[in-house]
Amino acid sequence: MPFERRGGFNSAPREMHKVVCSECKQECEVPFKPSGDRPVFCRDCFQKHKKF
Ligand SMILES: [Zn+2]
Questions:
Q1: Among 9, 27, 33, 35, fewest CB within 10 Å belongs to which?
Q2: From ligand 1's centre to the CA of 7, what distance in Å?
């Protein structure tokens, strides 16, 4: 992990999962585990869908 930081107040590890966005097909990481049978969106597309 090249970006690992030890110590500090922001040391809580956040598990990220690599996914391919269902809309723009870009590889991205989400802080939750993708269920597999549901589309996963990157942050941008997620915001877009949230508005609908
Ligand atoms: Zn996307």
A1: 9
A2: 33
Q: How far is the CA of 16 from the centre of ligand 1 (A)?
A: 16
Q: Which residues contact 8 (CB under 8 A, 6 or more apart)?
A: none
**Could you tell me the two tokens for 30?**
């989400």
The string of pLDDT tens digits covering residues 29-46 is 988 888 889 899 988 998
Return d(Cα 47, Cα 21) in angstroms, integer.
13
For residue 39, the number of C-alpha atoms closer than 13 Å in the C-beta half-sphere is: 12
- Residues bordering ligand 1, an ion, CB closer than 5 Å: 21, 23-24, 42, 45
Nearest CA to 41 among 27, 15, 22? 22
